Amino acid sequence: MAGPFADGIPEFRVLRASPEAMSDQPAVIMVAQAAYHLEELLPLAAALERHGEPSIIVAPVPTSRVLSRWRPANKRHQELLAVSPNPSGPVLSQQQLARARALVVLNDWGTTASLVKKMKTQSVPTFAWVEGVQDFADLDTGKQRKAYRSVDHVFCLGQYDYQALAGTSRTVVGSERLRALWFENPTSVQSDRLLVNLNFTYGVGEQHRGPWLKSVQKSMQAADWKYVISQHVADKSLVAPWRKSSDSSSVLLAGTPLFVTRFSTLGYEALVRGIPMIYHNPHGEQVPTFADPRGAFAIAESVEELIRALKADLPTRTKVRQQAEEFLNHHLHLVNDGSPAEHVADRICAVLVS
Fold first, then answer.
1. Which of 83, 89, 77, 88 is closest to 21 using CA atoms?
2. Whole-angstrom Cα distance, residue 330 to residue 308?
3. Which of residues 322 and 246 earns the better pLDDT score?
4. The pTM of the whole model exceeds 0.90
5. What is the mean pLDDT of the chain?
6. Residue 326 in contact with residue 332, Cβ under 8 Å?
7. Around Cβ 40, how many Cβ atoms within 10 Å?
8. Which helix (H) or strand (E) segment is 171 a member of?
9. Are 160 and 289 contacting, i.e. CB atoms less than 8 angstroms apart?
10. Going by C-beta distance under 8 Å and a sequence separation of 6 or more, which residues neighbour residue 215?
11. What are phi and psi of 11, to 5 degrees?
12. Cα(112)–Cα(92) distance, rounded to whole angstroms?
């Protein structure tokens, strides 16, 4: 389906809007591209409205292509609609787009790049809220995305992002979703199967997917561990149905005794939940996010190292959190100084009234 806008801007469906915004009053437009984005944007919408700023949350509609229902973009879109306040909302109109007060995205490349460019030509302030772990320097992506460098201002998860984005206008705010998990009591272990995160996606490291998974399976057998696989919606592996779960990764994380992953935001989520974690990197990922664990988790770069890590005594969830504090405080803003969404709204409103 062709979008209604020029300049390569896709069609957007309105998932949630202030009443004033639906009457074509100027509004802050926010773009959600995944289900977990709403955990940041819904609180932000509420915070903006407390400041008297109407808002619209939209989602780009995947273009219609052959076998589109099985494509990753469509699967992510369906997951997003399943948790949206108004999954059958109207299409964003030309008038609403033209009257945008500001634009907020969670990434500023790919699908949203044309929209960011359009807003800047209209002198509309543009903001990006870092969506999770990121290969800011494109060390492993094989691309030149220049992540979070096209918007006017970036909201960072912590000091790690802030340092990586030197040269941009930026503020450390944290994450609504991850901060909420940090201040919850840890869940108890509910399974005897450890969780394996399979997420070689969007052309990044996909050549390593098969060997990585085989090394995990070999190690599990040697260490006598049962396991279940959480497969990212965009991962194209053919996994035996009895090996993977249809439950969400967050649900599986909550009850697992141990977590094995490659580069993924789930690494942050595991640690704030207090889940023991092994970062398995036999394929030599260069992105440095998990290269310095600061005592928070184990690193395995071979089958032998993974087997040793799997056989180690498991710390309690409380102990994991204690051991992970230095790492987490570097990567995430977890200080109890108010809602991240409120901090974001304050900054946006300050720009709009200046």
1. 89
2. 27
3. 322
4. yes
5. 91
6. no
7. 25
8. strand 170-172
9. yes
10. 280, 282, 302, 303, 306
11. -75, 140
12. 15
Quick one: which H or E segment has residue 181?
Answer: helix 176-182
Q: Which tokens go with 90?
A: 């109207």
Q: CA-CA distance, 121 to 23, in Å (whole number)?
A: 24
The tens digit of pLDDT for each residue in 73-93 reads 777 888 899 999 998 899 999
Could you tell me which residues are beta bridge partners of residue 127?
104, 153
- Write down the residue that tokens 């089958």 correspond to: 303
> By 3-state DSSP, what share of the chain in percent is helix, strand and coil, each rounded to 5?
40, 15, 45
Per-residue pLDDT tens digits for 128-174: 999 999 999 999 988 899 999 999 999 999 999 999 999 999 999 99
Q: What tokens does 318 get?
A: 């409380």
Residue 134 is predicted with a pLDDT of 95
Q: Which two tokens stand for residue 111?
A: 């699908």
Q: Choose among 27, 91, 18: nearest CA to 59.
A: 91
DSSP three-state, residue 333: coil
Distance CA 214, CA 226 (A): 15
CA dist., res. 126 & res. 352, Å (int): 11
Q: What is the pLDDT of residues 27-41, one digit of tens each?
A: 999 999 999 999 999
Question: Hey, what are 340's tokens?
Answer: 């991240």
As a whole number of angstroms, the distance between CA 29 and CA 45 comes to: 10
- CA dist., res. 77 & res. 62, Å (int): 7
CA-based torsion, 301, 305, 311, 313: positive or negative? negative
Helix (H) or strand (E) holding 218, with range, is helix 209-223
| Closest C-alpha among 262, 108, 283, 154 to residue 198 | 262
